[in-house]
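Can't attach files on this board, so I'm pasting raw text. These are the components:
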Amino acid sequence: MNQALNVKVTEEQRDCYQEISNVAMGQAADLLARLLHVHVILPIPVVNLLEVNELRMALSGIESSNSVSGVCQGFIGNGISGEALLIFNDASFNDISKLLKYGGELDTSLELELLMDTANILIGACLRGIAEQLDVVFSQGHPIVLGQHVNLNDLVQANNYRWSKTLAIEINYKIEGFDINCDLLLLFAEDSIDSLNEKVNFLLED
Amino acid sequence: MATKVLICDDSNFARKQMARSLPDGWEVDITFAGNGEEALQAIKAGQGEVVFLDLTMPVMDGFETLENIKVNDMNALVIVVSGDIQPEARQRVKNLGAIDFIKKPINKAKAELILKEYGIL
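---
Top answer:
Structure tokens for the assembled complex are below.
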């Protein structure tokens, strides 16, 4: 039997996670902006401690009626583990392929390539940014496709979590002047939250 | 006379980090603001000779705050401190009258360098 963990995040810690995410998402957005030659509109990151079954509600940046595609990628290091999810509104791929000047017909396999390429950039840079500030090092697993052209509920349920609670950071990226919208979700495992809080306390005391 | 410094950021942690990064021995009178609206009020009240301004904030973001300072010809030296490090963001804030741009996370060395560069320190 799993012992129920009584994890908590104080308002001061939540604010610190939000600020760390803010810096990390800016670094990731800068890479994307340079790759696509666009301006990325940065949101205020949303940080929440939630039940895994509430995850769907945390994805506020994407309309539930939209067809979506997504990948997930695990990460681990210094007693902290979790998963990063990148979910695209499928309408985005049209503009992304134009911006990257990919020739030819936009089909499922080209969309997959675009999805993997952007996931690689955004997830990698964001995790690196967070790790640097917390003074930890994350190793990343292989990206796994959660689904293409599916609805959001099915996509989120495609992933089976072994935790009941998660510290979720949601970053919704939009690109100015284009119909591109994606959600980057960082989910920290329940049993990592204490270690994370310790790292953050260190920053808060500094 | 102590320099009136205004630190505007929606994050309490970021405000503290900024305040800690101000040079030792610099005589300052610090005011904090959580968004652009509060910042404009503080500047009107004479609390913002030097302003450290974040960009992504609720209520009123940094871009809009800069526009207001410019349009109303308010007397404030604004240094933007932001995680939005895209080249275009930097150019936009300079066009809106910010004297310079510091990439987050802020630290003592970055703050001192910029304050010296503009002869504020």
